[in-house]
Design goal:
Structural class: mainly alpha
Oligomer: single chain
Strand content: under 5%
Radius of gyration: 21 Å
Shape: elongated
Distance between the termini: 73 Å
Order of helices and strands: HHHH
Largest sheet: none
């Protein structure tokens, strides 16, 4: 019974890791990474390492995806600004 649960958990980890690599959108990728963190926490708990599972749950499924989402948000905000240089200055000042 225990071996079957370990095999299922390992298959879920492999599927989630493959999905995290296959997804191209950074926002969706961070959400898949959060799911992967939860699945890894379950795997660690099944393997009788609950302390590592709790750490993985906190870091892998909460903090890391949150930091990635905040970074993507900041980068996208910066990309909307007018570029620096002569053309960017003219666009900001309203000139030709």
């Amino acid at each position: 019974m225990t071996e079957a649960v370990i095999v299922v958990a390992l298959l879920l980890v492999a599927a989630c890791a493959t999905a995290a690599v296959a997804v191209r959108d950074p926002v969706r990728q961070s959400l898949v990474l959060a799911v992967l963190g939860v699945v890894l926490a379950v795997l660690f708990t099944v393997l009788q390492a609950p302390d590592v599972g709790l750490s993985q749950l906190a870091v892998g499924s909460a903090l890391t995806p949150l930091l990635l989402l905040l970074t993507v948000r900041k980068v996208r905000r910066r990309g909307r600004r007018a570029p620096d240089g002569p053309a960017g200055r003219r666009a900001r000042e309203g000139g030709p």
